Protein: DUF420 domain-containing protein
Amino acid sequence: METVLISKQKKANQLINILAVAIPVAVAVLLGIRQKVDLGSWTTYLPHLNGIINSLTAILLMAGLYFIRQKNIAAHRLTMLMAFVLGSVFLVSYVLYHLSNESTAFGGEGWIRPVYYFLLISHIVLSVVVVWFVLRALYYALSGQYAQHRRVVKWAYPIWLYVSITGVVVYLMIAPYYTH
Structure:
């Protein structure tokens, strides 16, 4: 019986590690495609949707923390699963937008320019890093390994919250420069 559990754990770890590498690599490759695909003008609204998704994700993350501190496990589980689903929807929306639209250049000048690029770069780097942590935290929670879940969440939560909040801030900073 213990051998079966170890085997399942090993397979889950392998899958998490593969996804944590494959997702950012796939996104980078898709973003690197210079020939844009015409998916229709509706895709020009996706950055606005992404700003909303990041806002809702941040709210859900904070609500999830509140609920677990109140020992309301059912509400915590629901809000965190909703945050995970929104993160997945964001990823699809982000890729669709960048497959079909040119990137928007930031037009700010002066002191705001380095602030914007610091936030953008830290957001991008940490969004790559957080994938592994979130997948691992989700796996541990769903498999009932709560001690391991808590250990991973000590890293996953602040990174994920930072990525969600900076996603909104970066969106608000670049939104005036969208041409559509």
